[in-house]
Design a protein that fits this description.
With 352 residues, the protein is mainly alpha-helical. Helices cover 70% and strands 3% of the residues. It has helices at residues 19-53, 60-85, 93-109, 114-138, 143-161, 196-214, 216-226, 228-233, 238-264, 275-285, 297-317, 324-351; strands at 166-167, 181-184, 192-194, 266-267. It is a multi-pass membrane protein.
Length: 352
Amino acid sequence: MTVTTRPPTGSAPGTAPSLAERLGARLSARLSALPTVAALLIFVGMIIYGEAAYGRIVQFNTLSNLLVNNSHLIILAVGLTFVILTGGIDLSVGAVIAFSSVAGVMLSNAGWHPVAAVLVMVLIGSVLGLISGVLIQYFGVQPFIATLATMFLARGLASMLSTVPERLADDSAIRELATQLKIIDGDKVNDLVITPGVIAAIVIVVLGFLVLHRTRFGRTVYAIGGSEQSATLMGLPVPATKLGIYVISGTLAGIAAVVYTSRLGSAQNITGIGWELDAIAAVVIGGTLLTGGTGFVLGSVVGALVLGLMNVLITRDGGIRPEMTTIITGGILLVFVILQRVLAARRRATQG
C-alpha cells in the first residue's frame, strides 16, 4: 500500500523559518505599522495645509502651544494604549481626572503640602484603576461595563466634593508645574517653551515605549491582545498583566490631572467629560487596533497631536464652528477604523 504524505506547510520545530515565513512576517509587520504611518502623513499634511492657508504654523510658538495644551491628552493616550493593546477599554479616565483634580485642589487649599496633594491625586487614579482591573480580571465583568461603573463612581465622588469650580491659590506650588521654560529664544513671541508638564509627558512616552517593547510585561500585553487563551497556555502572567494595565491607565489619568490642573489653576466636577473618547480616538488614529495585539505608543502620540493640531487649524480659520471638531474627529476615526479592518483582512490572508 502506498502512503502519500503532504509536505509540511511550516518549518519543523527547531529549524530556521523558511523564506516564505520570513517574508510573511515582514509583510505583517509593515501592515501593522501602516496606520501609524498614515497618521504621521496626515499630521504632516495638516501642517503643510495650515502653513499655506493661514501662515505662522511652522513656528516654535505653535509647537510649544501644541505640546503644552495637549500634554494631558498625550499622557492619557499612553495609558489607553496599554489597555487597548489587550483588547480592553477604559471609559473612566475623564472622570478620574475630575475627581483627582477637585480633591487635589481642595487638599492644597486646606493647607496640605503640595507634594502630598499631588501624590493623593495620582493615588486616586491608581486606586480607581485597580478597582476596574479587579472587576474585569477577578469578577469577569466586561471592560466596557467595569470602567463605565468606575466612571460613574469617580464622577459622583467629584460632585460630592464640589459642584462649583475650585481654584488653586495663586501662591500654590502646584502651579509651578506649568512654569514655562524657554528652550529657544526666537523673534518676538516666537519662542520654543516647554513646561514641567510637557517634560512629564515626554518621560511617560519614553517609559511607555520601553515597557512595551523591552520588557516581559510589554510582550505579555501584546500576547494577550493577540490571543488571551494562547498567552495563558504559554504560561504568561495574564491575570497580573491585565490588572496592571488598568492600574497604569488610572495612574496616568491621575498624573494627567496634575498636569492639567497646574496649567488651568482650577478644577471642577465636570472636568474631563468626553476626554476618554478623545484619548481613545488618539490611540486608534495612531494605529492601535481596537481588537488588540497591534499598536505603538509613539503612534498614539501622533494621534493626540493630530487632534490637537486640528483644533489649532479650526481656531485659525475662524469660519468653522467649534462643534465641527467632533464631526471631523469622528470622520477621521471612521477612516482609520475602516483602514484597520482592511489591513486585518490582508494580514489574515497573508498568514493563511
